Fold RING-type E3 ubiquitin transferase.
Amino acid sequence: MAEVWEMNYDNGSQSDDSYHFERRHIEPPFDSFICPLTKQVFRDPVTIENGQTFEREAIEKWFRECIDTGRPPICPLTSKELKSTDLKPSIALRNTIEEWTARNEAVKLEIAASSLSPNSRENDALHALKYVQHICEKSKSNKHTIRNAGLIPNIVNLLKSGSKKVRCRALETLRSVAEEDADNKEAMATGDTIRTIVKFLSHELSEERELAVSLLYELSTSESLCEKIGSVNGAILILVGMTSSQSENILTVEKADKTLVNLETCEKNVRQMAENGRLHPLLTLLLEGDPDTKLSMATHLGEVVLSNDVKTFVAEMVGYALVEIMKSGTLQAREAALKALNQISSCEAGGKILVEAGILPPLIKDLFTVGINQLPMKLKEISATVLANVVSSASNFEPIPLGPDGQTLVSEDIIHNLLHLISNTGPAIESKLLQVLVGLTSSPTTVLEVVVAIRTSGATISLIQFIEASQRDLRLASIRLLHNLAPHMGQELADALRAAPGQLGGLVRVVTEARGGIAEEQASAAMLLANLPIRDSGLTRSLLEEGAFRAIILQIKELRRGETRGSRFVTSYLTGLVGILTRLTFVIGQDQEALDLAQEHDLVGLFSEHLQANGLDEVQRLSAMALENLSAETRKLTNIPEVPRPGPCGVLFSCFYKQPEVMGTCPVHLGICSRRETFCLLEGNSVKKLAACLDHGNEAVVEAALAALSTLLDDGVDIDQGVQALCEAEAVGPMLEILKEGKTEVLRRRVVWALERVLRSGEVAAEVSGDAAVASALVDAFRHGDYRTRQVAEQALRHVNRMPNFSGIFQKMG
């Protein structure tokens, strides 16, 4: 079949394919069909004065050259001068040529049709495709001929050819066939042609991708095909991906983008683009479309899953418009706007933008309006969710008026209304409104106003009751709110928990039943209990009765062994557990059950382990505080052995009598000590761990560790042995550094007291007396400390010989 397309080249012939196709004739042309000047078949033959026929364009050019060179016009063939340059169309010749051309084209189309099949030889198919492409580019009318000849399906079938060259040429030919011809585009879009073209968009060969996107762009110029293109699964997703690709040819990227712009004429496509990350068309329609279009776009925006960055972009572009729809639209439009606002308000930046767009007044109005104009409950729930989202964005709500009376979100009446709604709506809205209060109490600038409103409304009991709610979200919001309130109204919450039947036990169950891993609910409940007044012995007794401490000890041990599945809430959960357990150490001196529990579970060992919880400052601080309380009880719990009385000889010769030594006694506490039974820090190997905390960067941890170590220097113990224990644990050096730094008054007061006792040791005093910085720090404490600190500093200065022993300025200390 290839020989059909072969040709002979005339001298001076062009080498491009279009000329080759022009020269391919099945029925050879007559000599009269060939222009003497162009050597090509006439397209517009004209006759000159002497009867010779030429191509119009060629003879006109010949006459211009004659005039330009100053010669009279002559005939190109006879070289005889002509009197006139008038041209007469040779209509008969042109018609004859057109008939001849039509016969040739018809034969060629038949040949092309037989070559346009997947089973054709590659060379035959390529020649046929080139021919079809050529005649389409030559004349628009030929495109109709191609369609009427039924060649479009044949070309489409070649897209499935095994030859890359054929596939690429087929894509290119289809683009030429479709270009500026709506009927051909429609014919091309039948069956699964568009789906086949779309498959090429993700082809590994860039040439095929480029040709496919060019063809798809051409088809997309037909508005009637836009919906069909968008309906092909993955088409819009792939096109969107191409527009953001860094590896695609820039022309391909531009063509993909233009294709998407064309597809935007169909709303379904706009929604698909939004789902695949191309939101601008949807947002533009939301801003500029008619009311029905705006409603449709807002509705879809509320359904699309957005990343936080995109939410911020959307809030910036349409946040104000959505707020306006929410304020004045129909009920259906307000619902769509609220759902969209719910989406974009769930990120901090988006929430801040919406606050600036004026979302708070209409939200509060929607929530508080009752009667005939009130929103349905499902929309109130969304309003409450949006309000919770924007409140959590950490914006400054205090200066934003919510109405003509100047009330703000933290005004007492507004908080009272929120509390009223919490008590009189369903769980879904209650949960969201509690989250609003959680957001307001999370800010130090608004928490106190909320506390005042809760107190004046008497809502404490009702808030606590949500701890027993069956809905997890409601319980969690309630616990988080109470956790935020605890530092400001801890005693009231503690009293209310004890007074409300079952509430304290319910909270303990939330803390200790961490099945399947630790969730935010467990961590928040633990932190709530830990932040209640730690010295409230009544609450501690109630927790004992609930079995809380035994369960909490079990949870801590499981965490240490890694038996509880971790999560991002492990740190706060452990901190809360240690805080709850620490409160037990405040009552072991008065409560036998507490003492028995502490001894049974070896609390000194447990808290000593947590001194080394690096990175968990509060756990370390609480552990040191607990060890201080436990160590303070050691003197009372130590069993002081009885020393045998001397016999008669010992009495008579007392100067020669040597008192027998009691083996196994604690040098500091002068009795039989143990870590488990008497909470001895020495027996528990806790002194070195506490000493290590003196170098901690957190001053609260340093203060707690210093307080625990100071129990080894208390009255009633062997202070010299206590000093010796501190020296062996290398604690004295860090204590001196704390004195020199003088970071806080509390730390200075504690370290001056401890060092005064340490410096009673002559060896230590002698070593320290040469340190001018220590002396200077003691002098500073003596000059600027409170009355008690000045007294102690004076004694310390005497130990290092910086204060005369006969000074009587202060009353002598015992």
